[in-house]
Amino acid sequence: MSTLAFPGQQVGDFTITAISDGYLNAGLDFLSNIDTVEASRMQREAGQKELTAVHINCYVVHGAGRTILVDGGAGGFKQWGGQLKRNLSLAGMDPATIDTILLTHAHPDHVGGLMNAAGEAAFPNAELVVHQQELAFWQDDGNLARASERARGNFLIARQVFDSYRDKLRTIAEGDVLPGISAVPLPGHTDGHTGYLLESRDQGVLVWGDIVHFPHIQIKRPDVSIAFDQNPSLAATTRSRLLERVSADGILIAGMHLGVPGFARIKRTTGEYGLHYETDA
User: Fold this and answer.
1) Which of 116, 123, 154, 182 has the most CB atoms within 10 Å of its CB?
2) 213-243 pLDDT per residue, tens
3) Chain-centre distance of CA 124, in angstroms?
4) pTM
5) How far is CA 197 from CA 148, 245, 255, in A?
């Protein structure tokens, strides 16, 4: 077992660990409802040295008799990320022990690491769990035909991943997924974008997927969407409603682009939401 520390939280009987896959870069001009000068200022004021760097987190959950991976990182797609397998090893975790993969959505920076170089399942013993609307969207030939050249590659990767896990693929809608874990539909970023709420012994954590890509901008300014959103207006509405809920209830948050610390709470003061990273439990 490695002595390297990875951000982690104990949530009742669940242990959840943030495992970094590395970074991708997205220009601040990908953001809508904000100009790049203002976006740059907000990044600098938040202490971000690399203004366009977007961190990629995956999460490993131990509990309920399971070893669960939430999302698989980019796997080196477009030179994005690709550090998940190495960091799992450094954290003393064997990919062969992962028996469940909960997918927030099928963008390449979330599924690229679920395949190996040969296009086969990188986690051969795992069941892949995905929202039924997410699977239907990427499998729809009409959606593929309408896609831009850039987006077409995303379809091919998503389909390849689904095919590589075809014998262990389970679709869900909302509600209970596993004991103590429920699916929370969070539409807008993609059709079937899904969060996962873990609850145990009166404690909880919500893995909210891609509610934000630039947390220091989009939490203060939930109206700011990104070009990766399939439905930017709906994504902004979902983000605003969720920020209101998690700040009011004090829910612990985990997010794929929340930053290296991996866990945070959202607090509202003077009408503005703020990001407060949670130290390890």
Assistant:
1) 123
2) 999 999 999 999 999 999 999 999 999 999 9
3) 21
4) 0.96
5) 33, 13, 12
